[in-house]
TrEMBL record, chain A:
EC supergroup of this enzyme: translocase
Transmembrane regions: 58-75, 99-124, 136-167, 259-280, 287-307, 319-336, 348-365, 371-391
Primary site of residence: membrane
Reaction catalyzed: a ubiquinone + n Na(+)(in) + NADH + H(+) = a ubiquinol + n Na(+)(out) + NAD(+)
Protein's job: NQR complex catalyzes the reduction of ubiquinone-1 to ubiquinol by two successive reactions, coupled with the transport of Na(+) ions from the cytoplasm to the periplasm. NqrA to NqrE are probably involved in the second step, the conversion of ubisemiquinone to ubiquinol.
Gene symbol of the encoding locus: nqrB
Subunit structure: Composed of six subunits; NqrA, NqrB, NqrC, NqrD, NqrE and NqrF.
Assigned protein family: Belongs to the NqrB/RnfD family.
Compartments (UniProt record): Cell membrane
UniProt name for this protein: Na(+)-translocating NADH-quinone reductase subunit B
TrEMBL record, chain B:
HAMAP family the UniProt entry points to: NqrA
InterPro entries tied to this protein: NqrA (IPR008703), NQRA_2nd (IPR056148), NqrA_C_domain (IPR022615), NQRA_N (IPR056147)
GO molecular function, one term: oxidoreductase activity, acting on NAD(P)H, quinone or similar compound as acceptor
Species name: Algoriphagus boritolerans DSM 17298 = JCM 18970
Pfam families: NQRA_2nd (PF24836), NQRA_N (PF05896), NQRA_SLBB (PF11973)
Record-given protein name: Na(+)-translocating NADH-quinone reductase subunit A
Reaction(s) catalysed (UniProt annotation): a ubiquinone + n Na(+)(in) + NADH + H(+) = a ubiquinol + n Na(+)(out) + NAD(+)
Entry function: NQR complex catalyzes the reduction of ubiquinone-1 to ubiquinol by two successive reactions, coupled with the transport of Na(+) ions from the cytoplasm to the periplasm. NqrA to NqrE are probably involved in the second step, the conversion of ubisemiquinone to ubiquinol.
Domain NqrA second alpha/beta: 115-259
Domain NqrA N-terminal barrel-sandwich hybrid, residue spans: 5-98
Amino acid sequence: MKFLRDLMDKQRPLFEKGGKLESLYYAFEAGETFLFSPNHTTGIKGAQVKDAIDLKRMMITVVIAMIPCLLFGIYNTGHQSLLATGETTGIWENFGDKAIIGLQLVLPIIIVAYAAGGIVEATFAVIRKHPINEGFLVTGMLIPLVVPATTPLWQVALATIFAVVIAKEVFGGTGMNILNVAMTARAFLYFAYPAQISGDQVWTYLGEKTAVDGFSGATALSVVYDAGVQNVNAVEALNNHNSILGEGLFSFANMFMGWIPGSIGETSTLMVLIGAAILIGTGVASWKIIVSGFAGAYLMGLLLNVLAVNEYMALPPQYHWVMGGLAFGIVFMATDPVSAAQTETGKWIYGLMIGIFTVIIRVTNPAYPEGIMLAVLFMNVFAPLIDYYVVKANKTRRLQRATV
Amino acid sequence: MSKIVKLKKGFDIRLVGKASQEIANFAPAQTFAIKPTDFIGFQRPKVLVNEGDTVKSGTPILIDKALDQVIYAAPVSGEILEIKRGDRRKLLEIKILADKTITYESFGKIDLGQDREALAAKLASTGVWPNIIQRPFGIVANPADNPKAIFISAFDTHPLAPDYGFTLQGEEKYFQAGIDALAKLTTGKVHLNVDGSKPVPSVFSGVKNAQVNQFSGPHPAGNVGVQIHHLDPINKGDLAWTVNPVGVVQIGKAVLEGHYDASKVIAVTGSELTKAAYVKTYVGANVSTFVKGNLNSGHVRVISGNVLTGEKINLEGFLGFYHNQITVIPEGDYYEFLGWAKPTASKLSYHRALGLLSFLTPKKEFVLDSNCRGEERAFVQTGVFESVTPMDILPVYLLKAIMAEDFDEMEELGIYEIVEEDLALCEFVDVSKHPVQELVRKGIELIQYS
């Protein structure tokens, strides 16, 4: 590693004040600090030692937590594709083919997301003279996981650029943003190019091939929604869906495992829970938000059961956990510490409301079958308000103490 | 009514190099210094001596013209060696070359029967007064004030902190006299807060004239600011005083002996020392005789105080007025290849993202160096500061109010209740590496001088 260090030391004067490439200092700094933890020491006064953690370590932990979802998503993309064309029925059949199809579709999306976002991030860092923020490590991985594998790459690039600029950099970069960056990217795609991110045609990659007769590309959410409209039992509708491809494609167990069509990383509740275990185990994400998010969805589902006027409302609440992106959204998006509520009490309320709103939007809104996206963005906007009241309560306690 | 408070929030930083319970025979310090920079809020220094003058222990050598009743005295007898000034003639140190045997300026035994004002004025003229600190702000107390209570933390939970049960043994008589004097200075109570998780050391066990409270839990349970918060919190307009037990003994000695005895036992600690032990010396001692020749590595940082709140001094530096400890750790000015990514068990972290399995070895002691372990970033992680601050305070909101210089917000969020040391752990655990203690002081000064 000595030669790398020497190389860095040799190039450093170029980027420092007065050097030829002074304006690119933060690009150099990003590269240098990625390779080497810097030699900064603590000041004369104050804490003389520091905790070994830094933001890079924290962010990479989130990326690691997403890896199970990513790997599963890659394989499931291939699996769904071959399943629809009738080339496979078993989950582990044609393992290599499925993995290759998945990789062919997913890898380019990841590369495009990281490249597009990285360039924007670096450009802003250089122009605005702030360090390149590690938060993008996470965003760049989240965006591919919340879009269908068939999304055109230019749309991925456009959405990423839009989200990084509008949702983050205009506010001053990581730590200052109000909205979750990855959710903003998805919302952008959803409203700008609805044809490529909603409906029945986008979730399963078919390529040049044709699907078997009677195949439906609908997601579980739209199946349940239709059941509500046609007034047939929602659970039966799920169980009977796409029976041409095999038994119980949308059974609870299968949806929990994630062998269903959907956005790349969000289908498997099991993999999301593994990610949640990593995030909670390492203390990176707030368990309060995760627990209250799932609880909110369940409670709202129960409440709707009581009030049920159609079959969707009568759906057993646990189904909400395994359909669509709820689990993924709560674990990876809602817990983004910057856009979430920042007080401990606020986190309970924030998570709970996300769960509640997700289910309300799903069940009552005909236009958006998936509720988590809007619920997270909505609560991102309201998080400062929640915090405001929690902080106010703290101030009031202090004031009351003084006057007693 | 004595109180028992069990605290859960906080974090003990376990370091290698705890002082063994013995008085080491290090060569005695030759020179001593009084540093005005040790006294927070010291405004207009006036030096009362010249280079070459001879002084006794207790001779006034310095005053703050903004609070001129309080004198700052020579801790030892000897000759004024140097009056060191820095940029723009800022007074840095008054160095004294100590005599072989210390002689004392005698002001006669102090009668505790006199009224509060007279006693305060008397103590202010003896050299022991700067041991009394005023909250809010953490500045030297004004003898004219009447605090609502006086708080003494009888234990120190900082990393490698000295054990007052050991350093003050045999001082029972003086400690009690100090408490008696303090009890005269307030119309409120004197609170003596002991460590509830251990047997109470003899010096504190028989104390009368004070309310004895028990605190237990991880650091910062021993911080007097945290204790005040749970006993009798400071609101806007309140005034409380705090004294370190070592200061209480010095006050007691002034009362009973009629002279300023600045001797104290300090802990010489840290991973880079061959022998970590206690040593008997005086306030402001030059540390070189304790450290040089006692090092097991070359590239070190010498800290007056502990690693959380101390001050970097060099090998020829002097012990700070309020410090009862020096710590020697490795200097951390090196690069580390992929230092942020490597899995490791040798680094200490409060966060499980780095120390995932650290719960398996809760008693493990670490060698920490002065490396910052990362670069400064915006606030990202939430909830961590709260989890190391056992007070009903929202540190991040308070710090943001300070950054925004929002006076009302700072007051409402509790700036009066804290000084630097109370949020020192936040600075340690901060993922984004903010200078938390510096910010706290900035906020306090904004309020204090507004």
